[in-house]
Write a structure and sequence with these properties.
alpha+beta; 7-stranded mixed beta sheet
């Protein structure tokens, strides 16, 4: 299969480079890539959603095993709701249920970079990885960072999504930053309802809210960077 946005370094070599690099740059050498034309094993939504519950059980077992071996914590939210799944298929995936790659999902939370990278290495070794998105080296506009893996489960043949988090960053995302996100969504939604562009005061408020998010994420990220340098 063809990969996109990839450095052409094979996965096993990438893993070796991560293991041998210094702590301060290990995360940065993990490149974004993804196989083309990833598809779920079912094209009809009803069949896809029905079989997803078994795939979720399969994924949960992998996540629990990964967490146990790498001193991390597994988060098992269950499969995406039927409403959210259908909404995403309609609005983002051109009506193609087989293109929905995060119907089955879960997370690994680590307290430090070393444990997060150990979990990453474990999944690279023991799972059929189909794609990687590294938002530690390329964070979102708000400053949020994580690693997202797409894997193919061996028994159900489902594509599943695994997110690798650092604990303090995940706490901000699920706490203060979520409140900021909701405020921004409320402003943008009101403008959309009224079929108008954001006026200047709304734009300024959104910028201020985003700066708050950036500050929160940047502060804890510097703590992780400092701790990793002390540990290396």
């Amino acid at each position: 299969m063809v990969t996109v946005s990839y450095s052409q370094i094979p996965i096993h070599q990438t893993r070796s480079m991560v293991l041998n690099g210094t702590m301060s740059n290990r995360l940065n050498i993990i490149n974004d890539w993804r196989y083309d034309n990833l598809q779920q094993p079912h094209q009809q939504f009803e069949e896809l959603y029905k079989h997803a519950k078994f795939a979720q059980i399969e994924l949960n077992q992998l996540l629990q095993k990964t967490a146990l071996h790498n001193d991390c914590h597994a988060i098992l939210p269950g499969q995406k709701s039927q409403f959210r799944a259908q909404q995403k298929i309609t609005t983002e995936l051109d009506g193609k249920p087989e293109a929905l790659t995060d119907l089955v999902r879960g997370s690994i939370v680590a307290t430090n970079m070393n444990d997060l990278l150990s979990a990453y290495d474990y999944l690279i070794q023991y799972a059929d990885v189909c794609g990687v998105k590294n938002r530690f080296s390329r964070p979102t506009a708000s400053g949020y960072r994580d690693i997202k893996l797409l894997i193919k489960l061996p028994n159900s043949h489902f594509i599943a999504e695994i997110q690798l988090h650092l604990k303090k960053i995940a706490s901000i995302k699920n706490g203060t930053e979520h409140s900021i996100y909701e405020q921004i969504q409320k402003i943008e939604r009101q403008a959309m309802i009224e079929s108008r562009l954001l006026h200047e005061l709304e734009q300024q408020k959104i910028k201020k809210l985003r700066r708050q998010s950036q500050y929160l994420y940047h502060r804890v990220w510097l703590q992780y960077i400092t701790n990793s340098r002390l540990a290396s």
